């Protein structure tokens, strides 16, 4: 693999020592227009815009106020139509008196998939009104 990389750069007329010491190219963010440096070609957006595009995470208080039948979205998984994966609250919110930060909420997705929202994975979910996906469901 390394030989192929070196051969590729020599064919392009690049010197390998200059290649790794050179400054990375400057990219323009298509969202805000600011310029930023990135070594990875896949990084199109600046960190400021990426933060704005991410949905606001579900808070502990919002999770405790969920009722049976409410819909929440999962941030990191998408349906085939590019919308956020939707989960339905399938039972009562379980809380602990001895540990107020601990919760368990039964969830259902589709016909056969069940899961549990806990204090460990609460950052993976958001409310539909906080969804930043342009194809909101």
List keywords for this structure.
SH3 type barrels; 4 helices; alpha+beta; 137 residues; six-stranded antiparallel beta sheet; two-stranded antiparallel sheet
What does this structure look like?
There is one protein chain. This protein has 137 residues and is α+β, with helices and mostly antiparallel strands. Strands 3, 4, 5, 6, 7 and 8 form a six-stranded antiparallel beta sheet that branches. Strands 1-2 form a two-stranded antiparallel ribbon. It is elongated and about 55 Å long. It has four helices and eight strands. It folds into two domains: 2-53, no CATH class; 60-130, SH3 type barrels. β5 (94-95) and β6 (103-109) form a beta hairpin. It has helices at 2-11, 16-21, 47-53, 60-64, and strands at 26-28, 35-37, 71-78, 84-89, 94-95, 103-109, 113-118, 125-126.
Radius of gyration: 22 Å
What is the N-to-C succession of helices and strands? HHEEHHEEEEEE
Q: What coarse outline follows from CA principal-axis ratios?
A: elongated
Terminal-residue CA separation: 44 Å
Number of helices: 4
Strand content: 25-35%
Q: Any guess at the CATH architecture of the largest domain?
A: Roll
CATH-derived topology of the largest domain: SH3 type barrels
Task: Quote the average pLDDT.
Answer: 76
Question: Which class of secondary structure composition applies to the elements?
Answer: alpha+beta
CATH class of the largest domain: Mainly Beta
């Amino acid at each position: 693999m390394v030989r192929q990389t070196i051969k590729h750069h020599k064919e392009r007329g690049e010197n390998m020592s200059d290649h790794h010491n050179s400054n990375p190219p400057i990219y323009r963010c298509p969202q805000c227009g600011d310029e930023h440096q990135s070594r990875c070609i896949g990084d199109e957006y600046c960190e400021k815009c990426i933060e704005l595009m991410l949905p606001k995470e579900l808070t502990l208080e919002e999770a405790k106020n969920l009722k049976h039948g409410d819909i929440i979205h999962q941030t990191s998984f998408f349906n085939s139509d590019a919308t956020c994966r939707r989960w339905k609250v399938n039972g009562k919110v379980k809380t602990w008196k001895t540990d107020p930060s601990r919760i368990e909420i039964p969830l259902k997705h589709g016909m056969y998939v069940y899961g549990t929202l806990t204090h460990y994975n609460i950052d993976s979910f958001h409310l539909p009104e906080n969804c930043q996906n342009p194809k909101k469901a």
